[in-house]
Design brief:
By secondary structure, the protein is mostly helical. It has one domain. Helices cover 80% and strands 0% of the residues. The chain is elongated and about 50 Å long.
Length: 99
């Protein structure tokens, strides 16, 4: 598997992990409710962005020598990261809120 492909799948997994942490935080603080609250979504989105930025700074030193264009490290997997976070967050949030 090529370096950027591995980074793509890593970002997919990190999106799922961010969703699990967001829902876990919601459970721990008892903020998951059946009524939609936009602030809960924005808190989760902010956390997903923080995870993405931290992953960039942790991965960058290892991948710069292996990639032709270093800016690709930042942009590779950005869509799948947020899409996987959104899908798993909505799925888990819905399952827990309706239980």
């Amino acid at each position: 598997m090529k370096t950027l492909e591995a980074l793509y799948w890593l970002r997919f997994v990190l999106g799922m992990v961010a969703a699990l942490i967001c829902v876990g935080y919601g459970l721990a603080t008892n903020t998951i409710s059946k009524v939609y609250d936009f602030n809960i979504f924005m808190r989760g989105l902010a956390f997903a962005i923080i995870i993405y930025i931290v992953s960039y700074y942790l991965i960058k030193p290892r991948l710069v020598p292996k990639v032709e264009k270093p800016p690709k490290i930042l942009t590779t997997g950005i869509g799948i990261s947020f899409l996987s976070w959104l899908v798993f967050w909505v799925l888990l949030y819905t399952i827990i809120a309706t239980a």
